[in-house]
Amino acid sequence: MDNAALLIVFAIIILVVLFVLGRAVRIIPQARAAVVERLGRYSRTLTPGLTVVVPFIDKVRPLIDLREQVVSFPPQPVITEDNLVVSIDTVIYFQVTDPRAATYEIANYIQAIEQLTVTTLRNVIGGLNLEETLTSRDQINGQLRGVLDEATGKWGIRVNRVELKAIDPPHSIQDSMEKQMRAERDRRAAILTAEGTKQSQILTAEGEKQSAILRAQGDREARVLQAEGQARAIETVFAAIHAGNPDERLLSYQYLQMLPQIAQGSANKVWIVPAELGKALDGFGRAFNPGAAASENGMVPKPPAPPTPPAPPAPPSAATPEQTAAAEAEAEAAAREAAKAVADATSSTPGAPAGNLGLEGPR
């Protein structure tokens, strides 16, 4: 009986000791902190690791997370400067730097941060219009962070970042913005199309200008080359004529050859016979019949002169006998054709005498 009572007492004592040790020994995890109150007053802050407190005297409050925390607040209606209501979602990144201040300076620091964010956001957005609100996110974030960091500093909290997650204007404003953006895109497309057409026309005009310039330069060079060729041809003909030493018969033949070209054309009603035609025909006849020319002038032909010694050989540029005979035959035929043409023209002209073929020598 006594041994059993002793065992029970011993077991109770062991349980009490274990209970006291459990209340006295505390293990604080990493990135956590705990506030110890002794007899209701702040005593110290427990850091990560094994810590011993006085049981029943020291009270350990709930652990405080020292890591950076992210809190997303629900959408808040905010009125802009141009009296438009927009819904804004915010995200706060904060970190507890002082567990004692976070415990005793504020009752619920998360709720306090939310309310402070809402009021600060309304103050900031109230000074901006809708367009500035949509395009000034960085400016709004910087102002919110500065105000929140200053207000939460005494709470042992540091606000690292404030982000606007979404800015939702009313549906009517969204429709108007879409129409405006569509009209702006159409305007830009029209401007780009007009600029492209303008540039295309400019390039086409420049190309036509360059083409016309090159074509004119080509025509000019072609005319210059043609003129140079004609000049060389004339020089060659002139040199050949002087080198051949033409006589009166050849010149008369060439003169008669030009008469048909003068009378060309269906519109020619009157054929004007040059005054030099009789002289040319007279000279052409005297060239081929010297005796007849002398009898017409009332002169008796002189007896033939004694034979002269043979002339020296002609230079290489003189015409051969075959060429001379062919030229004489062509001259006779041309003379006959010219005389016939003159007779026809004279007979068709009223008032012209038929005996002289309408020819008139030089006066």
From TrEMBL:
<feature type="compositionally biased region" description="Low complexity">
    <location>
        <begin position="319"/>
        <end position="328"/>
    </location>
</feature>
<keyword id="KW-0812">Transmembrane</keyword>
<protein>
    <submittedName>
        <fullName>SPFH domain-containing protein</fullName>
    </submittedName>
</protein>
<dbReference type="InterPro" id="IPR018080">
    <property type="entry name" value="Band_7/stomatin-like_CS"/>
</dbReference>
<comment type="similarity">
    <text>Belongs to the band 7/mec-2 family.</text>
</comment>
<feature type="domain" description="Band 7">
    <location>
        <begin position="23"/>
        <end position="181"/>
    </location>
</feature>
<keyword id="KW-0472">Membrane</keyword>
<dbReference type="InterPro" id="IPR050710">
    <property type="entry name" value="Band7/mec-2_domain"/>
</dbReference>
<feature type="region of interest" description="Disordered">
    <location>
        <begin position="292"/>
        <end position="363"/>
    </location>
</feature>
<dbReference type="InterPro" id="IPR001972">
    <property type="entry name" value="Stomatin_HflK_fam"/>
</dbReference>
<feature type="compositionally biased region" description="Pro residues">
    <location>
        <begin position="301"/>
        <end position="318"/>
    </location>
</feature>
<keyword id="KW-1133">Transmembrane helix</keyword>
<dbReference type="Pfam" id="PF01145">
    <property type="entry name" value="Band_7"/>
</dbReference>
<dbReference type="InterPro" id="IPR001107">
    <property type="entry name" value="Band_7"/>
</dbReference>
<dbReference type="InterPro" id="IPR036013">
    <property type="entry name" value="Band_7/SPFH_dom_sf"/>
</dbReference>
